[in-house]
Design brief:
about 110 residues, mainly beta, 3-stranded antiparallel β-sheet, two-stranded antiparallel ribbon, 5 strands
């Protein structure tokens, strides 16, 4: 399986506001983190593209979801489905087909 890798460019001010709400230190993030998103879902996914922005707490993550120029920032629970090596899936709970460890490509390792 391969990642979708569809690029997104959210409105910077809206993304900054949501990152600040997660407690992210914006000075520590590379500039591209504030302007470029890459879909982490499986290439054949249905629905909007999605990129993990940050962790709010142990049970809540901030994700950007987009379809064309429409961006939404949502708080979702982590998937946490266990892989054979013990690592949990890093996507959100209820994501489309394929857990993160099943997908391999140049952008996501």
């Amino acid at each position: 399986m391969r990642h979708c890798n569809w690029p997104g460019r959210p409105p910077r001010d809206e993304l900054t506001r949501h990152l600040q709400a997660t407690g992210e230190d914006l000075a520590e993030l590379p500039p591209h983190e504030l302007t470029e998103l890459t879909c982490e879902l499986e290439a054949a996914h249905d629905g909007p593209h999605a990129d993990h922005i940050g962790d709010i707490d142990r049970d809540t993550q901030l994700w950007a979801q987009w379809d064309g120029d429409h961006y939404q920032f949502v708080r979702l629970s982590p998937c946490e489905a266990p892989a054979e090596d013990g690592d949990a899936c890093s996507l959100f709970d209820g994501h489309g087909p394929g857990h993160c460890w099943e997908m391999r490509d140049l952008l996501h390792g």
